[in-house]
Design brief:
Length: 89
């Protein structure tokens, strides 16, 4: 999953400038995991994200999330952040 996110950041977020990507995985006491991916690129219009189901990259990200039964939260503030919440069965 993170490789597709990184490719999207390289292609769309940094526009030939240096950028930073942060990846974080945490587990809470209920055996639930939170995977956070953030870049500090140009961000994206969240309405566009909702409507851009034709984007192969976004389709793949959604498919991978469905595969692990994860909920996705997307934020666009000083870059783009994807937060995946899931539980290991």
């Amino acid at each position: 999953m993170e490789s597709k996110l990184i490719i999207n950041s390289l292609k769309h977020a940094f526009n030939q400038k240096k950028g930073e990507v942060t990846v974080h995985l945490s587990k809470n006491e209920k055996n639930q995991y939170k995977f956070t991916y953030k870049d500090n690129g140009v961000g994206m219009d969240l309405i566009k994200i909702d409507k851009s189901t034709n984007s192969l990259g976004l389709k793949l990200i959604k498919m991978l999330a469905e595969e692990i039964d994860a909920s996705i939260q997307v934020e666009s503030n000083n870059g783009l952040t994807y937060i995946f919440n899931f539980k290991i069965k």
